[in-house]
Each structure stands twice: as structure tokens, then as C-alpha cells.
Write a structure and sequence with these properties.
667 residues; alpha/beta; 23 helices
Amino acid sequence: MRAQFLIMLFDRNGFSNEELIAMYHEILRPRMIEEKMLLLLRQGRISKWFSGIGQEAIAVGATMALDEDEYIMPLHRNLGVFTARKVPFDKLFMQWQGTKEGFSKGRERSFHFGTNEYHICGMISHLGPQLAIACGVALAHKLNRENKVSLAFSGDGGTSEGDFHEAMNVAAVWGLPVIFVIENNGYGLSTPVNEQYVCKQLADRAVGYGMKGLTIEGNNILEVHKIIKEAREYCITEQKPILIECMTFRMRGHEEASGVKYVPKELFTEWALKDPVQSFENFLLSQKVFTSHHVNQVRENIQKEIDAGLAAGFAAPHIVPDTQEELKDVYAPLPYAGEIKATTTTATEKKFIQAISDGLRQCMEKHDKLILMGQDIAEYGGAFKVTEGFLQKFGKERVRNTPLCESAIVGAALGMSIKGYKSMMEMQFADFVTVGFNQIINNLAKIYYRWGQNADVVIRMPTGGGVGAGPFHSQSNEAWFVHTPGLKVVYPSTPEDAKGLIIAAIEDPNPVLFFEHKALYRSVSGMVPDEYYTIEIGKAKVVQEGSDISIITYGAGVHWAIEYAEKNKDISFDIIDLRTLLPLDYDAIKASVERTGKVLLLHEDTLTGGIGGEIAAWISEHCFDKLDAPIVRCASLDTPVPFAIALEQNFMAKSRLDECVNKLVNY
């Protein structure tokens, strides 16, 4: 990257001497902290450091231009965000050292944390997902009629990620007051920008989204502050996002271990002339805002702050692991215990799909801050008509059609959680969840464990085969998520359970993946209580008790098991409907094994890696002495789901149910 190396022109922009001195103090603090961190790194007293030396003007200028209660989504090199928000240095250092007194109780490193007290949302290593969270925060501002913005940082490398483009599009389409800031320092780790993109400036991409875009001098703190301040007013007044590209340069490697050999030496010489700290200091001295004596005083005060913080940080005790605390902190606590019971016994016969719709409607009536989002869910009522009529009843602000940006919508839902909203996102088909996989696995699932911020998000997942929809609209992918601590995975089989569990999912402050078998939508009916009620997540149901064979299953498998039992009354079947796959009801599983001694695990998912394998392992470990036969798994073929009906029927686990039962009967 080459730059136009003119001496930077500083414009006071009406700042008083006191304000300029305060700004100098804020830009100097992260520089001095970093210099100390690099020294400690060389001494082996800290383990890793991502340097922002040379880029301080962007983080500091942007932060000082915002209100203190406006959320910022920073990245590795934005120490200035934390220091300008007055995050105590001793607390920061404890975080970097991995002590329990840090922001993440030692569970995260460096800047991978957030703090609601200082209105900062912590990053994940995948970088791009932060931008969508800013969209969610901004949507909450918009719905609350608040004159506020959110601000998200991206590096030049991160602009190549799909999340960057999805977030831009969602912010533009929904008219969200978001400031997107690109720190263009010329390199994505060692890859120069000419191998990252071919447009002249990254800000030029804004026009493609119908957004305003600007490229500015990122090393001039006064220019950064002025432009961000103006951008904030623009976003609030126009209710639109803006993209600002800040040209800068990092004077260290991507992180210290990577070095700087990949950067031409002359670039360091040229960019040193535009050092954001030294240039600003020289300007203030030339303007007689302060003297060199005053500079020394500021440095001494900051050094005392750093020394005190280091002393407190190094004195902090080493973590003593507490297994129970670790497990407890994976999920946010429920706002109620057990279940919400219906107070009357009135019930109406409903189809499975009607029960889900009824539960959603009652949740919308109860929770003013519940927002529904998904492709075609508004006027069209959703691909399966679950939300039909909701737009007319609850309005377009709360029932929102989305662009085809699954990752950005999941991220936006998380951002809304930060502002106290509940969100339900409909994946049009469970198969499409792959596009939002990163947000679910690395953001939703981990955020409460990482820094105590819950993700109050439900993702509805129309799932399963049996309708001849082929490989991309028929998958059973629930097992992908059962492996992820922090998620809850729910899979009802009856209308009564569907309503009670969707309400429980909405009430739950944790992220819930709610699987709905498409073949059950209109084929299964049952009596459903009319009132608002919940069924406890994590509790299985005994469909019928028996003494010969346990069938442990869920979803469509429950109906296959009931149908088979009715046709084979000479066998006494104990049928367990798991209802929830994460967490599993091990007590119910154990009780069923004890009743029969023979276990058949039945699910529509493919055999290899299906949840049946996990349950079989648990039973073998904990109930081995109760077994009278090997555990049998009945699952679908280890192939993609075929389209032709005959092939699909052959694929389905149901076609092997009789064979599997006979294995146990004849053992």
C-alpha cells in the first residue's frame, strides 16, 4: 500500500485547549500501555499481544465522538476504545492475564470480551460477525425511537467476509443508524490489500448498498472525531447507515510473533511521519496548547496509572478451577422455575402448525419486545404459513421480512438481546442454517459463558423429510447443534408440546434451536390448552410404559413408534419422547432402560454422528447392568436425502424399524 505522504493538517474544529489536552491524554494512554505490554512480552511476563500502534487515532477519535451509552464493537487493535471508555487498566490487565477478576473470569483472551457497563461488545476471532451485532443494536435504537447509533469496526481483510456484505445490506435495507468503520492498514495479516480487493477504495463499496461512504485520514484524530461526529448526526437524522474507511498503518506485525518482514521497510519510514500520537503532540505544541513540561506531566500520570494497574494485575491470584461454576455459567438462569401452568382446562383441537402459531401469537401479545424475523414471514406468512396474519395484528416493525442474509439476521438478533429484546428468527428450512452456522456456534452459544451477556434468541427450524423435497430441503441436522454447549435444542412431536415448548423457548433467555418436522405440520392434530403455558425444556415424556422394549425417540420417530406398537401389540413397548435434545433428560432415559432392559434408539437423522450414538454411549456407561441385549440404533441411511419418493422411503429409518425391533426380540 502506498499513501499520499503530505504533512497532516489538523483543524481545531472549535475545540478548547482543555478539550484538546483531554484528547491528547486519551490518544497517548493506549500508546503507552502498548509500549509497556511489548516490553512485558519480551520479558516473557505476558503471552501474546496484538498491537494497534500507529492506529490509535481511529479508536480514540471514534469513541470520543459517541455518547457513552452507545455500543461499540471493537477488534484486536482497538485498545483506545476501552481506554477512552475509562475501563480501569487494572481490570483490563487482569483480563489479558486470564485471571478470574477479568471481564471473562479467565475464559477469554485479550479483547475477546464485552462489558455492558462500558457499552462494548466483545469480538470473536471470525471478525465479520461483529458487524451484524451492530445492526441488531441499531434496530433496537430504531424501535425504541432513541437518537442513538452503534459503531462496528472492521479491518480491510474482514471486508472480504460474507458477514461484512450481509451486515451492510441489512443495515441499508432496514435503514439502521449504524456507523461501519474500516481500519485500512494495508494488510490482512501478511496479505497486502492488492490481493484482497481491486476497487480503488473500500468506501466505494457503499454505493452498491445504497449507502453513503467516505475515505478519511485515519491517523488524524481531529479529522476522525469530526467525521464520526458528523456521521452520527447523519445516521440519526436520516435513519441510515454509513461506511467510513480510515486509511492508516500498523507499525507492528499482525501479532508480535508474526514479525514485519513481509512489509517493505520504506513504508515504516513514510508512515512514521504520520504517527498519530507524535503528530498530534507536535500540533498541540505548535499551537501552544501546552508545553513540553505539560507533556511530561501527562506521561508521568499515565505511567503511574499503568504501574498501579500492573501491580494489581500481577498480584491477582491464579485461577482455581471450579467445575460446578464452569457448568453453571454456560446458560443464563431462567426467569421462572419449572413450568408456567395453564390456570384453566379449556382446550381446542389444533394441528401441529396451528399450535406453534398459537404459541407465537400469545408470546407476541405478552412480550412487547419480541421481534419476529425471517424470509417471507410478513405479508406472505412464511413458507409454511406459521405467521400468517401476524403482520396485520402486530405490525411491520415487529414482524420483519429479511433479506437472504441468514448470518446477519442471527447476528442482529444477538445485538437486539444486548438491548433487552427477544428475537425469533425463522430459518425458512433447517437446511439453510449452514449459512448462519458461525453466528450460532461461535456467537450465540458462547457469549453468556464468555462475558455474561445472554442471547435471547429462538431460531425456528422447519426440518425433516418424507415430503419428497430432496437433499437441500429435507435434512435432519439437529445433531450438529447438540454438540455445542450454550445452545438448547428442542424437537416436539405433538401439538400440545409444540405450543408449550415454543412458549418455553421464547421465555428462555438462552439461544434455542426449535426444530419443527414439516411432515407433522398438517398431519398431526391434538387437544391444545387455550391459555399461555410452558413445558419444561429438558424434560422427556413417557408416551406409554412397557416392559419388553424401550423405544427412545423424538419428532416424527414418536409417531412411527406409536404406529408400530399399535400394529404389534404382542410386544410391550416403552416409548420415550425426548422432546429436548440439549439438555437431555437422562433420568427419563435411565428409568425406561430399567423398565425393559432392551433399548432401541430411533431417529430420522443419519446413523453416523446422530444423537442415538451419544445416548447409546451414555446408557452403556451408566446403565450397563440393566441391559439384557445390545443397544440397537435405528436411523436413516448415511446418504444425502434423495428426491424420488421410493428412494426417500428407503432412506428413512422407518423402513428399518421392523428389522431393528426383531433384533431385540430375538436376542
